[in-house]
Amino acid sequence: MPVYLRGLHFFTEQGHKRVSSKKLAESVNIKPAQMRKDLSYFGDFGTPGVGYDTKKLAEQIRSIIHLNVPRKAALVGCGNLGQALMKYTGFDSFGLKIAALFDKDKRKIGRLVQNCKIEDIRKISALSKRGIFLAILAVPLCAAQEIADKLVQAGVQGILNFAPCQLRVPRNTKVINIDIALDFARLPYYLPKNIGASE
Amino acid sequence: MPVYLRGLHFFTEQGHKRVSSKKLAESVNIKPAQMRKDLSYFGDFGTPGVGYDTKKLAEQIRSIIHLNVPRKAALVGCGNLGQALMKYTGFDSFGLKIAALFDKDKRKIGRLVQNCKIEDIRKISALSKRGIFLAILAVPLCAAQEIADKLVQAGVQGILNFAPCQLRVPRNTKVINIDIALDFARLPYYLPKNIGASE
DNA sequence: AGTTGTGAACTTATTCACAGCC
DNA sequence: GGCTGTGAATAAGTTCACAACT
Prior knowledge:
- The structure is a homodimer of 199-residue chains.
- Chain A folds into two domains: 2-64, Winged helix-like DNA-binding domain superfamily/Winged helix DNA-binding domain (Arc Repressor Mutant, subunit A), CATH 1.10.10.10; 71-183, NAD(P)-binding Rossmann-like Domain (Rossmann fold).
- Chain A has a seven-stranded mixed β-sheet with strand order 5-6-4-3-7-8-9.
- With 199 residues, chain A is α/β, with parallel strands linked by helices.
- In chain A, helix 1 (2-13) packs antiparallel against helix 4 (54-64) and helix 2 (21-27) packs across helix 3 (32-40).
- In chain A, strand 5 (112-113) and strand 6 (116-120) form a beta hairpin.
- Chain A has helices at 2-13, 21-27, 32-40, 54-64, 80-87, 141-153, 180-186, and strands at 18-19, 52-53, 71-76, 96-103, 112-113, 116-120, 132-137, 158-161, 174-177.
- At the A-B interface, helix 1, strand 3, helix 5, strand 4 and strand 7 of A face helix 1, strand 3, helix 5, strand 4 and strand 7 of B.
- Chain A binds a DNA duplex (22 and 22 nucleotides) through helix 3.
């Protein structure tokens, strides 16, 4: 669903009031029927013969995937990736914002990154009191599970995990993994064997 | 397959000479039968009653997915994400290395990042002559397609794309997308509705 | 006994194609 | 005429369960 939301964003910006499943689907590289099926799972949002009202559908999708309200997230790990994520603007259009920053390194604590002060990881305990239930985990593999446990204890229920491991979390906590090396390692398979072998 | 390779890496490091599909599968959070099926697509690698030889299987998987030789990649876009990727060490264990760096920004050109000199994007043309057939695209959305075209022209056949769009490339070029915002935007769906709504 | 490789059963996802609505 | 929503058909992926092997 988020991908449709982004597609709609594009059409809305272009000034289109309506869009067909054909147009919207092709903008995100899938078949129109697929998109209609996906939407139909949640209800009927279109008008036969006309299509979808871009703004209305966007609002409806936001409501379905709980992006109808802005949300704050915590970022743990202010290394290179963490800092890159702080400066990243791609979350804005989904109403997501990194509002708390944590690191273990004492030298980093107190420093400002994008107007957000790096806090001691030990102060992580009461995120839920600050209205934060989402977290991005950008720490080394060796620290990931330990910090995931702390996040769960702090009330976090959704984790975007960049560490190359399967976190163990309670049933009611959702983890989504992004494993950059793994994705990159898939590419050579599609190359002719031995092409570009170095050394 | 790359995920099994990583799992094997772990077992080899632990000093295990053999591993069963059960153990290996659970280390990567899948069912044993799934793993055996996946492997069986490429051949028979195990010994009934015994399991798999960790080193041998790793080498065989590397050969299957063309990771049996070290490979070089170009990184385009030396913004925050690009620099984070340069410092990232997760590629090493797959024999992948960023060996060329490009940016559009004249002020950045010539600067060293991790012992690699940032080159002018206009010098991108002959990557294949340098033995580079893989690229990581870490540039803003607006530049992504244009640079993808250049990469293809330069002989690149595999692209890891961080821009939130579907690149159009020739059939023989493989693109793998990593869309961080999209993945993050999936999380709130699993949260109770309106929990943590800010403002 | 322990484990693989695999056909068969099951589940899930995708695509087709068309009735019904605008 | 154009487009949606959806049942039916197809395809793809997963899991089971067991014969065959060490």
